[in-house]
């Protein structure tokens, strides 16, 4: 990381500009345009900080093919749009995906170029460390630039609340060249649903993840109807906002779906994904076919009686699973963004069920318009007072 103090800001920024420009020139021929505004501007970015190591390795591994002019721009305008990328500072993968994909969706709606500010260290670090390795195509869909803050027109949008749709169309008549939409999370499918097939392509799994996903199911199970249950525990147990998956609901909802689908399909197999295999094992203790490799019940024990009238099925708990493998294979913590993406990217024929967030104590409900967060084709499940599950 290189930081420049303010005394030397001007001269060092010029130096960075020149270095970067040399770098750019070599890249320009292959369609990579960074810092293109640099020579023309009189004034240098106020934050003259670039995380050089990440930046260079990130740029190096961006695919250096001629970038086919993106689906994005019908006319050749050079108007840009940026989001604050608030979640890039510390949030998890699901949150980051929402912001970056909402940026692409909004840019498309406004017919502007999607831009990510290369001077913010958390931007480059996240792109390089958590997004590029999983989704190399995704990081080619936007421009990386340094645009001086004084030429960017900033507007509040999707302010504070995570999961609402704040229609970007109200920015359509803006004439400023550079827009910054200054908001948080942008967690609504309505920002990008019109690009769904492109999104599936941008988030296509790597070959490795695909192979790992193939091994989850042995060949004799491949014809089964597969129900994927996603659980989310970990930090959701303690962060004071989210509710972790609940053992009673997880089991009851899985049993409900198995019964429902066993009417048509003889064999059903359940694959449980998530970030707590001990919890999954405890909830499906009597259904896990290969438990020898899995640790024992959670401590402290879950307050959870195994139900008596459970249909017959077998459960697979993928070992050493990683988020990208889980994604490649494609929910129940009501506000898990990762579960959301698992569902959104699942094969087209998949049917998605989710728990009615209103029946949990999940505080995200206060920041959410469920109609903006859950696509209408997803099916909501609720719990009756006696514990039975029903479809809305
Ligand atoms: C854009 O249109 C809205 C009303 O539709 C208006 O209030 C606003 O002033 C316009 N903005 C610009 C920059 O023209
Ligand atoms: C699961 O249990 C094992 C041993 O019982 C423990 O080492 C591990 O940390 C537990 N994992 C989680 C996610 O709690
Ligand atoms: C169960 O797990 C062990 C250890 O990984 C493996 O050797 C064995 O083949 C597995 N059995 C089944 C039925 O999958
Ligand atoms: C789980 O518990 C059983 C019996 O209590 C014990 O034999 C086994 O070694 C334990 N497995 C692990 C992975 O700790
Ligand atoms: C699960 O259900 C049982 C019986 O209905 C109840 O006693 C227990 O408190 C529930 N557990 C949780 C974690 O809500």
Topology, please?
Blueprint: H1 9-28, H2 52-61, E1 80-83, H3 93-110, E2 113-117, H4 121-131, E3 143-145, E4 152-156, E5 178-182, H5 196-202, H6 207-214, E6 225-231, H7 247-262, E7 268-274, H8 277-283, E8 314-316, H9 323-329, H10 337-344, E9 353-355, H11 370-373, E10 379-383, E11 389-391
Parallel strand pairs: 1-2, 1-5, 2-3, 4-5, 6-7, 7-8, 9-10
Antiparallel strand pairs: 10-11
Which tags fit this structure?
Glyco_trans_11; binds 2-acetamido-2-deoxy-beta-D-glucopyranose; 11 helices; transferase; L-Fucosyltransferase; 2 domains; Rossmann fold; transmembrane helix; membrane; alpha/beta; 13% strand
Summarize the structure.
Helix content is 30%, strand content 13%. The protein is built from eleven helices and eleven strands. A five-stranded parallel β-sheet has the order 3-2-1-5-4. A three-stranded parallel β-sheet has the order 6-7-8, covered by helices on one side.
Structure description:
- The protein has 392 residues and is of the alpha/beta class.
- The chain folds into two domains: 197 residues, no CATH class; 185 residues, Rossmann fold (3-Layer(aba) Sandwich), CATH 3.40.50.
- The protein is built from eleven helices and eleven strands.
- Helix 2 packs across helix 4 and helix 6 crosses helix 9.
- The longest helix has 20 residues.
- The chain starts with 8 loop residues before the first helix and ends with a strand.
- The N terminus is likely disordered.
- The site of one 2-acetamido-2-deoxy-beta-D-glucopyranose (NAG) has 2 residues, from loops.
- One 2-acetamido-2-deoxy-beta-D-glucopyranose binds next to helix 7.
């Amino acid at each position: 990381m290189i930081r420049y103090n303010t005394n030397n800001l001007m001269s060092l920024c010029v130096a960075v500009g020149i270095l970067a420009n040399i770098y750019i020139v070599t890249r320009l021929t292959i369609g990579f345009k960074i810092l293109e505004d640099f020579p023309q501007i009189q004034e240098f970015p106020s934050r003259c900080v670039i995380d050089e190591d990440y930046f260079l390795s990130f740029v190096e591994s961006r695919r250096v093919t001629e970038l086919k002019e993106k689906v994005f721009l019908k006319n050749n305008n050079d108007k840009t749009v940026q989001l604050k990328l608030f979640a890039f500072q510390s949030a998890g993968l699901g949150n980051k995906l929402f912001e970056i994909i909402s940026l692409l969706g909004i840019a498309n709606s406004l017919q502007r170029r999607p831009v990510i500010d290369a001077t913010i260290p958390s931007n480059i670090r996240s792109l390089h460390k958590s997004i590029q390795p999983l989704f190399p195509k995704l990081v080619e869909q936007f421009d990386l630039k340094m645009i001086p803050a004084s030429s960017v027109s900033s507007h509040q949008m999707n302010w504070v609340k995570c999961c609402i749709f704040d229609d970007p169309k109200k920015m359509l008549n803006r004439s400023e060249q550079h827009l910054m939409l200054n908001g948080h999370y942008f967690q609504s499918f309505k920002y990008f649903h019109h690009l769904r097939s492109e999104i599936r392509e941008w988030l296509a799994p790597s070959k490795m993840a695909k192979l790992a996903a193939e091994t989850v199911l042995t060949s004799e199970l491949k014809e089964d109807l597969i129900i994927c249950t996603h659980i989310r525990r970990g930090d959701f147990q303690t962060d004071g906002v989210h509710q972790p998956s609940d053992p009673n609901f997880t089991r009851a909802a899985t049993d409900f779906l198995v019964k429902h689908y066993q009417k048509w399909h003889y064999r059903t197999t359940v694959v449980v994904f998530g970030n707590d295999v001990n919890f999954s094992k405890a909830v499906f203790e009597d259904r896990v076919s290969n438990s020898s490799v899995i640790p024992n019940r959670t401590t402290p024990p879950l307050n959870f009686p195994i139900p008596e009238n459970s249909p017959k099925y077998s459960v697979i708990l993928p070992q050493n699973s990683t988020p990208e493998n889980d994604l490649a294979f494609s929910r129940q913590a009501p506000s898990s963004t990762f579960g959301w993406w698992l569902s959104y990217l699942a094969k087209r024929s998949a049917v998605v069920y989710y728990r009615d967030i209103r029946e949990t104590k999940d505080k995200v409900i206060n920041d959410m318009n469920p109609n903006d967060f859950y696509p209408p084709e997803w099916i909501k499940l609720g719990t009756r007072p006696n514990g039975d599950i029903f479809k809305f």
